[in-house]
Amino acid sequence: MLNRHILSTLNEWKKSPLKKPLVLRGARQVGKTVAVRMFANSYSHFTELNMELPENIEFFKRKLTPEEIIQAIKLRHGIPTDADSWLLFLDEIQSCPEAVAMLRYFHEKLPALHVVAAGSLLEIALQREHISFPVGRVEFRYMYPMNFEEFIGATSSPEMQETFRQVPSPAFATEELFALYHRYALVGGMPEAVAGYAVTRDIVAVNRIYENLFTAYVDDIPKYAKNQTMTRILRHCLQTAPFQAGKRIRFTGFGESGYGSRETGEALRTLEQVMLISLLYPTTAFQLPFIPDLKKSPRLQWIDTGLLHYITGIQQNLIGIDDLSNDFRGGLLEQLTGQELLAAHNDKRNPPQFWVRQKTQSQAEIDFMLSLNGVPLPVEVKSGATGKLRSLHLYMENCPDAHLAIRLYRGPHLIQEAGINSKYQLANIPYYHASKIPEYAQHLNVPQARNAE
Hints:
Blueprint: H1 6-15, E1 22-25, H2 32-39, E2 45-50, H3 54-61, H4 66-77, E3 86-91, H5 97-109, E4 114-119, H6 122-128, E5 139-142, H7 148-155, H8 158-164, H9 174-187, H10 191-200, H11 203-224, H12 228-240, H13 261-273, E6 277-280, E7 282-283, E8 299-302, H14 305-312, H15 315-318, H16 331-343, E9 353-356, E10 365-372, E11 375-381, H17 390-398, E12 404-409, E13 414-418, E14 424-430, H18 437-443
Parallel strand pairs: 1-4, 1-5, 2-3, 3-4, 7-9, 11-12, 12-14
Antiparallel strand pairs: 6-8, 9-10, 10-11, 13-14
Pfam family, one: AAA_14
Organism: Pontiella sulfatireligans
Protein name: AAA+ ATPase domain-containing protein
């Protein structure tokens, strides 16, 4: 069993006196069902209903009241009527629109009920049925592939996982953590692949898992394509998206195709809805809030680096590599960093942004823009102990609230004074610690913005 961070989030939900029915969202095979089953161990009773099965849909098709539905489920599954520690799990809930609608009434009529729902193609299916989630009556959490810390827990020792959690990293463990991170980039974070690798240490066996997984993703397309033309475009976009990971894209002619901007854009946004990709849009703002500029080219974020390496056929390039900045035309490290930043937040679907200069003739760009305590926190992904940081200097000179910038690189933790016309603090952080950026910023006592004091 793989320990997932989402379990802590689910336990917080369980303890909350203001809980609502919880909907767990994520792409196929990221571990939603297994995570809920593990979470169910904290209950005395557990009922799992797969809503693709007719006998389970029947509960919601019979026009019963919420109370009657719960009584019928308990009766069929042998749950005591007065059970005070019971979790109801509605898996693949998109297959039963009536069950989606019933979540509202569970909240209003049975507020003490603990109910979790999950589905992989949820948003697409509900759009097709013209059904929306009851606003304000449900909560959402999001699952992604396993992050690096979870990967360490599955493939290395508890001591190494504890070492990874230290900020800054102890010097004696830096090289071993880099080696583990490079292995994580190769294997990826899809739970079945990680579990297989943890047992066999065989990347060929992992490839068989990824072949089956990607085939399933392709086979899913007819489930959410509205016609045959869109099926072809979606299939093309899905098969070529991994080759564009970590890079800015244009919708017109995406993947060396003859498709136009409108049809490609619709296809890519559909893949984003099913959480196979994320489209990261730039901001041109120097201060918060960072409003994404949807008129500018987005950067494509693929679901997982292990699957990416398998599809693109460049696994051999990563075996024995010493610096991820040298792989995949420099885009892998941006892809992997984005994957870590996405997985750090399971309470919202909020892809990180990056920064570009407003002027059209400018090439200035910063890889990621975060915030802490109301203060902008620019993040650059660079290789080597030094590098060209013109974009970072430009941004820091024009942002009065920013005092700290982050550079993720192939090296140990190092603090420098940087800047040309105005000085700022530059924290050089090992790139395997991308998920720990907030901890580093807190360690360095980042001040609050003036209007937040």
